[in-house]
Amino acid sequence: MKMRFARGGGILIAAALVLSGGTAALAAHTSPDTAIKWKAGKSFPSTATRFDGALVDGKVYFLGFRVDDAGTTDGSVWYYDIKKGKYVDTKTDMPTPISNYEIAVLKDKTGTGLYVFGGRDANGEIIKTVQVYYPKTNKAAVLKKDPWPGQTPSKCVSLVGTGVATVGNLAYAIGGMSFATSVPPCTDDNSNQTWIFDPMGKEGKRWKAGPKLNVARGYVATAVIGKTIYAVGGDVNDAGTLTASQVVESWTVGDKKWDDKGVADLPQGCDEAQGWGFDSGPLANTVTVASCGQWPNAIPDVFQYDAKKDKWSNAGSLNEARRNAAGENIGTAKKPQLMVVGGYNSDGSAILDSSEIGTPGKGKTAGFSGAASVFHSAGKSGASTF
């Protein structure tokens, strides 16, 4: 799996239908307390999408990525050295190359590990495999006795995608979807499950069930403020039609259920996006969501949620619309630098290698695309579209 510099191909795009009522959804737009200004960063050495990054000791690690829409999946582990400003190939591959994942940084008995739960392999199969990569030793392993337990109501393995959050030393995997176009074929369905993973737990017993979402959906963006997890947007799969959701729910760890009514929804639907939450610094008590997708399209708008005011606003705009990008804060809470890398372009016709860095700044943001929420049919274009 050493396709480290392969360039991406195209995507077969299904017809897009604009939903009525989009204008009303945008009425909640207000100016943010803190705008995010974006500039170009270092380009990744390959086109890359449906992946994630995680920061450990000044390096952002990427545990493989999809390079084209034929499903070609590169399992090689790379990192971005923040100080040197360059990408480095670790020469290690994940045991099972996957795309469609989010990384949880956790400590186990071996040390600091980067965990991924399930995902989609190069054959188009949504899998149960749990894998971990250890930056210190540059080794990766499979947890054979603790596979990903997430399922949709039709008993299909769920693709959790971006729906993974970390609080303390526990990972929370939220929601998920299954597809009739996957390999082997399953059912178009949505999960409302929350699963909690304890890396220090007894082997074979590291998973336990948490409270269920109010709205079943997959590919939510997650963000954490204190011990409160926010499940932002996502996709609802209805007979192969994916609808970008505006729904936002919150759950404070230890509570009995997720809260849908007590948290404001997005101004418009977003799926396959990256989210960040902050306890302190210039973005204290806020959630930022960037690379807002509306599969198979993307919009450049960056949204900000004020947890104290319970309001969403537009906090700026990426220079290039993208979805399914990797994301990480490569700065600190005091001086955030929000990094997005790769992903699909605005209409899903190309996979990107570019990156952008977002920095908080004072003043109102310029422009709001005003794009209405959209839905798209998965049709018969194949499993490679997810």
CATH class category name: Mainly Beta
Report the major sheet.
5 strands, antiparallel
Instruction: Indicate the percent of residues in helices.
Output: under 10%
What fold name goes in the CATH topology slot? Answer: Neuraminidase
Strand content: 35-45%
Name of the CATH homologous superfamily: Kelch-type beta propeller
CATH architecture designation? 6 Propeller
**Could you list the spans in which at least 5 consecutive residues all have pLDDT below 50?**
1-29, 363-384
Distance between the ends: 20 Å
Q: Shape from CA axes?
A: globular
Number of domains in the coordinates? 1
Write down how many β-strands occur, each being a DSSP E stretch of 2 or more residues: 30
What would you call the structural class?
Answer: mainly beta
Query: How large is the count of helical segments?
Result: 1
Cα-atom radius of gyration: 19 Å
Mean pLDDT: 88
Helices, strands, pairings?
Blueprint (H helix, E strand, L loop, with lengths): L15 E3 L3 H4 L9 E6 L12 E4 L2 E8 L6 E9 L4 E8 L4 E2 L4 E4 L4 E10 L4 E9 L4 E4 L21 E4 L2 E9 L10 E9 L9 E3 L11 E5 L2 E5 L2 E4 L2 E4 L3 E5 L21 E5 L7 E5 L2 E2 L2 E2 L2 E6 L4 E7 L8 E4 L8 E4 L13 E7 L12 E4 L9
Antiparallel strand pairs: 1-30, 2-29, 3-4, 4-5, 5-6, 7-9, 8-9, 9-10, 10-11, 12-13, 13-14, 14-15, 16-17, 17-20, 18-19, 19-30, 21-22, 22-25, 23-24, 25-26, 27-28, 28-29
